[in-house]
What does this fold into?
Amino acid sequence: MRRVLLPLAMLGLLSGCGSYYSYWGNPGGDSPRLIRPPAYRIAVPLPTQALLTDAGAERFSNTLAEALRVAEVPAVAIAAPYPLDWPLRVSAERRGDRLVPRYELLDADGESLGSADGAPVPLRGWGLEEEAAFKQVAERDARLVVQLLERVEAARKASDPAALAGQGIIRIRLAGVRGAPGDGNRSLNDQMRNFLTRLAYLPQDNAEGATYAVQGQVEAVTTGDKQRIELQWIVTRRDGYELGRVVQLNEVPRGSLNGLWGDVAYVVAEQAANGIREVLRNAAQPPEITNPQTPQATVVRP
It folds into this structure.
């Protein structure tokens, strides 16, 4: 599947200068499915309670994710699930000379959706972390996960077709901001909530009912008496597809943001919220491009 688009907005943090980059591909026959993605993506983190070494846990996680994809379940082996992913927690319990794997499916808010025990596995093959044993267990127990999903989907609808089509109120999960000095994490998240609300979105802390997610990452690098601040607002949807990023860069006096961000958070969030709106608009209604060319940046001077 090709990406319909990957917009990247670059906005001046304090200066007001900025540029907006859009990357367009050829959507082809898959474009309707990309616009209306699956209602969930299963994340398979490393099973730390499965009596495996770190290397074995990584191999089994990848093997199970592959077996789920073969069973037509969108799944990925990943260390840190995305904000709207449904984690699949894998553990194992020893019973005599056998081992029983256990699978617990969680929603994006960490609430259990159900669990199931796999068939007993010979302890020797599991303990030796044999590839053949892993593949056999993964292919067999992938059906248990499919059954769990079928029960969940019979009881609830995780996606909002109206929102995916650009109709009605769009719910966005705010997954927080990480890495900012001072009170930046809290201030940026609070101001982003305010500006997304002004743009007629419905921001929320939990994942239930959310069509998209926004998470902020801040990196501060000190050089001499200056501090380089880079903010990235990552926009994803339920199936883990990254729609785009809003990136903001600027240099500030060293230590000037180690306390209260105040008006800086206000300006940053205002500009970034507009960039997020552009990412979501393009995701809902990708333009028809017949002759894609090298992306060009449009710079707006203050």
